[in-house]
Amino acid sequence: MGDTLSQSQWFLAPYCIGMKLRRLRTEKRLTLARLADETGLSTALLSKLETDRMIPTLTTLATICRVYGVGLGHFFSEAKEHSLSITRKITNPGRVRGAVSNTRIALNPGIPGRRMSASVLDLEPGSVNVEPQADEDRALLIYVLDGTLCLEVAGMIEKLETDDCAYIEGDLPLAWGADGHNHCRVLTVTPGPRAAGDADSHNQTPDREPQSLQIS
Q1: CB-based contact 130:152 (threshold 8 Å)
Q2: pLDDT tier at 30, thresholds 50, 70, 90
Q3: 72 with 98, same domain?
Q4: What is the DSSP secondary-structure string of 103-139?
Q5: 177 and 103, same domain (yes or no)
Q6: pLDDT tens-digit readout, 168-213
Q7: Do 55 and 15 meet the contact criterion of CB atoms below 8 Å apart?
Q8: Which helix (H) or strand (E) holds 16?
Q9: Confidence class of residue 34 from pLDDT cuts 50, 70 and 90?
Q10: What is the pTM of this model?
Q11: CA angle 64–67–70, rounded 5-degree value
Q12: Is pLDDT of 41 > 50?
């Protein structure tokens, strides 16, 4: 019996039934107690189903589907595609003596056709990066991990401190740099490359590589 249950759990794992059950309940803003009243099932049983400690029967799942207004296909639809990219223990080469200034580390390289590109950029003091003018449907998110970032958008200058975030859309002229005499580290997220292939699979080059301009 134990082996059969193990095989069933292994087979059903990719469908993430427990996670889908919990997400539906959260979206409907229902407590386990309220869902138990609606379905006639116990809160203990519902909790086990949401945490994948028990496999639901089709009858049980159909009862829950009736409350949520979804079909059984919601739980058994096959994923069309899946990508996972993990970058562990990002070092800070921009703070190592002799390292190239304004070093960019791609966080999700090697995934062709990805929908977004994320990078960590180390900015050296005394230099500024000028981003190319973006198309109308381009967007950029900047999150300051460390230091102070001086951000200039269409002539307007803003200073972003650690944990500040900026989101930009459109084709406004954009420039940024480390403020003062200290380094600055930022996380940037942009839409993925439109063309086929992986732009930053070689030398970790980003989709919108900034040009370095030295401040005198």
Answers
A1: no
A2: very high
A3: no
A4: EEEESSTT-TT-SEEEEEEEEPBTEEEEEPPPPTT-E
A5: yes
A6: 887 777 888 888 778 889 998 888 765 434 444 333 333 444 433 3
A7: no
A8: none
A9: very high
A10: 0.53
A11: 80
A12: yes
Contact 5, 48 (CB under 8 A): no
Which residues on neighbouring strands pair with residue 214, listed in sequence order?
127
* Number of domains within the chain: 2
**Distance from C-alpha of 83 to C-alpha of 77, rounded to nearest angstrom:** 17
Whether residue 100 sits in one domain with residue 70: no
- CATH of residue 18's domain is 1.10.260.40
Q: Which domain holds residue 128?
A: 93-214
My answer on whether 60 and 144 are in the same domain is no
CA atoms within 13 A on the CB side of 209: 11
Query: What is the Cα–Cα distance from 132 to 73, expressed in whole angstroms?
Result: 45
Angle between helices 17-27 and 58-68 (to 10 degrees): 20
Backbone angles phi, psi at 209, to 5 degrees: -70, 120
pLDDT above 90 (res 48): yes
Query: Can you read off the two tokens belonging to residue 62?
Result: 């159909």
Mean of the pLDDT values across residues 116-131?
78
Are the C-beta atoms of residues 183 and 95 closer than 8 Å to each other? yes
Same domain (yes/no): 66, 115: no
